[in-house]
Amino acid sequence: MSRAHPLLLFSRFTWVKVHLLTSEAMGEERLTAEQTETCEKTASKASIYCGKLLRYKPHGFTVSVITKALLGLLLFGVVWAVTGPACLPGQNLFGLVILFLSAVCGGKLISVFRFPRTPPIPALLGMLLAGVVLRNVPYVTDAVFIDQNWSAALRNVSLAVILTRAGLGLNAAALRRLKAVCVRVAVGPCLTEACTVAVVAHFLLELPWIWSFMLGFVLAAVSPAVVVPSMLLLQSDGFGVQKGVPTLLMAAGSFDDILAITGFTTCLGIAFGTGSTWMNVGKGVLEVLAGVLTGGVMGLLLHFLPSEDQSDVVLRRCCLLLGLSVFSVFGSRAADLGGAGGLCTLVLAFIAGLSWKEQKAPVAAVVGRFWDVFQPLLFGLIGAEISISTLSAYTVGLGVSSMCVGLLVRVLVTFCVVLFAGFNMKEKIFISLAWMPKATVQAAIGSTALDMARSAGDEQLQKYGMDVLTVAVLAILITAPIGALAIGLAGPKLLQQETHTLDEGERESTRVDGLESKL
């Protein structure tokens, strides 16, 4: 005979005791047999109901939605309880909380829509649209107010987090293994697109040359947030694995971003220099060198600190890494070397990851969780910077035209750089199409020039900065969903699928051999 659950026994005895006390209060000396039997039946039914309630464990989509809604309400409730009136409609904290929750919901909703056998539409698109909606819906705009200083600070923190994550994700072994083809795919399309956009934007948008090149490098970066998940989905189904196409694109994507960020920071230093043209050029180069050297020194510091014999070494490494990254971004601005911060963060995370080797994975996982929090903030705040009423059809049309010309050149150059890499015609076309999406880097650095222009108080520079940000947002809205769908739809049609099953070790060996045979 199985033992009864303690809570069931407790409920049964409780019912009996309550009835006894009630009877004594009424002056009864003892319970009759009928009353005792009735009491025991009632207690038995109650214990059965308690047992069913304890054994019931809700699950499924509905419970998940309720849990997330409760977490959202709890977040707002805690902030309101701590800050009071500062979290009421029209105040800064209210706007930040509503923006964050709206961006999270927008990302979840946009991910629901997908075509069969294709990667989902990137969640960042829904986050961006949530920010645009909150900024441009009447009455909602007044209630969801966000201070510009807070917005800039949070976007800079998000920039530090995403660049840290990118630095940790760089694979030095893949770069050594892929050699020439990786360099060609990363460098050629990036530089040609940046130069093409710069020339077109200079004449169409009437931007100064340095601001045109700044826009060019903002648009020249491919988005790992779109490319990597799509490549992993194709790779899991065996498409392109034998030739190493997914591995090539995932490895080259990070180095493409480094080149674009380096070019952007150089132009940023020149644009906000106060001396002669040559002095500004020298200052831009100096900022790049300062970022690389400072990041290298900080990365070496994290090789020694904290030591491996300390407790909670992963937590301490995360705190030091993220703390130094945020300090680099903000400290470079304070030192009037604004272009050095982003590059310093990339180099810092890359060097630290090299020194940690296999122990890098848990740190990268923690940084990834931080990015889960700051990603909705970054894309939501970027979207909230766009006021549709102030945009002119002239600027939007010419900006999209500049972007499209740059994309066309990028696709053609990508096709050319893989001509002699051992791929067939279909694979070359696929690589060219997969090298289009824009998202993460555009959101991370697209508003940097506008923030610095606002700090300088120059209205003309603010206009240039807003033009750069507007075109960057348009690039995300247009290329992110199109790129994800193009990869998902074209991959199974253009890439060869493995016809036999390989274990993981054999599959990795095949990918590496396929890549090395093309070099």
Automatic annotation (TrEMBL):
GO biological process: proton transmembrane transport
GO molecular function: antiporter activity
Keyword Membrane: yes
Boundaries of every Cation/H+ exchanger transmembrane domain copy: 113-485
This protein's UniProt keywords: Membrane, Signal, Transmembrane, Transmembrane helix
Signal peptide positions (record): 1-20
Name recorded for this polypeptide: Cation/H+ exchanger transmembrane domain-containing protein
Organism listed in the record: Cirrhinus molitorella
